[in-house]
Amino acid sequence: MVQEQQVDGTDETAAPGQGFMRRNALVVGVAVLLVTAVTVTGLTWGSQRSALDQQQQTITGLQGQLASVGTAKSEQVEQDVMESLGVSQSRIHDDTQIVDRLVKTAFTWDSGQAYEAARRDLKERYHRLSEDEQFLKQFMPPARFNEDASGKRYYYIDTQGLNSAVNADADLEVVKVTADEYTYAVQVEVAATSDAVSQNKVAPDRVKSYRTVLVYLTVDAQGKVSGLSAIPAGGSTRHSR
Fold first, then answer.
1. Region 1-5: what's the mean pLDDT?
2. Per-range mean pLDDT, top range of 39-48, 154-163, 226-235
3. Are residues 179 and 208 in the same domain?
4. pLDDT attached to residue 237
5. Do 104 and 196 fall into the same domain?
6. Are 60 and 19 in a shared domain?
7. Which letter does DSSP use for residue 109 in this model?
8. For residues 33 and 39, what is the distance between their CA atoms, to the nearest angstrom?
9. What is the per-residue pLDDT across 122-178, written as a single tens digit (0 to 9) for each?
10. Terminus of the chain with fewer CB atoms < 10 Å: N or C?
11. Residues 6 or more apart from 34 whose CB is under 8 A from it?
12. Boundary residue ending a domain (56, 84, 112)
């Protein structure tokens, strides 16, 4: 009888554990499947993300190459059109150097005397220029000054502390070709500064402003300049300190 009771006790202890496993087998299985699915999904997403990044890099590289090719083709088309109209690229290259020297001469000065010297240089270097030219009469007129009994000049430019310089390379476009004469529209950015502000102690630094000037001129095959005129281009003046 004792042995039978011990066997019965052992069966009663084991039965609940086996029942728990049977009751929860489905839950455990689903949990394992979910963990596996999440792991596989994460690995797959990471792989896809890497592939997409690589694909995007390839696309970006191709877009850059296409842009370069497009720019080169546009430049070639423009050059072909210009040549078909009888416009010489080598001539434009030579004239560009003449135009650069002219605008730097006209717009680079830091005193009344330097301004007058720039005007004289323009008339001497470009022989067709005279005081009757629109550029020298209206856009770059003679400097104003007062003169004392000894003949010393006091320029208005100096009292204001004005300075001028070309801020960037000129942007040149052909607008007309007649025989060997090329007419250009030239966009020039000029930086003007004033020392008067610091002299008056309003501010410790120079005040600088930028203005864009549109210059028109004609250059012949010998490099002679004519028809020089200029107007301030549209747009606001930029200031800085």
1. 47
2. 154-163
3. yes
4. 45
5. yes
6. yes
7. B
8. 10
9. 988 887 678 888 888 888 999 999 989 998 999 999 988 899 999 888 899 999 999
10. N
11. none
12. 84
Distance CA 42, CA 35 (A): 11
Q: Point out the domain boundary residue: 84, 106, 121.
A: 84
* Residue 213, CA distances (Å) to 18, 113, 144, 163, 219 in order: 96, 23, 22, 16, 19
The three-state secondary structure class of 238 is strand
Distance (Å, rounded) from C-alpha 108 to C-alpha 25?
Answer: 92
Distances (CA, A) of 18 to 11, 27, 96, 97, 190: 11, 15, 97, 99, 94
Cα-Cα-Cα-Cα torsion 219, 224, 228, 232, nearest 10 degrees, comes to 70
- For residues 31 and 97, state if they share a domain: no
Q: What pLDDT was estimated at residue 178? A: 92
Domain count, the chain: 2
* Residue 1: predicted pLDDT: 46
Two tokens, residue 173: 């476009």
Q: How far is Cα of residue 33 from the mean position of the Cα atoms in its chain?
A: 58
Give the range of the structural domain holding residue 8, as residue numbers without chain letter: 1-84
Question: Helix, strand, or coil here: 236?
Answer: coil
The burial class, CB within 10 Å (0-12 / 13-18 / 19+), for 239 is exposed
Q: Does the pLDDT at position 108 exceed 70?
A: yes
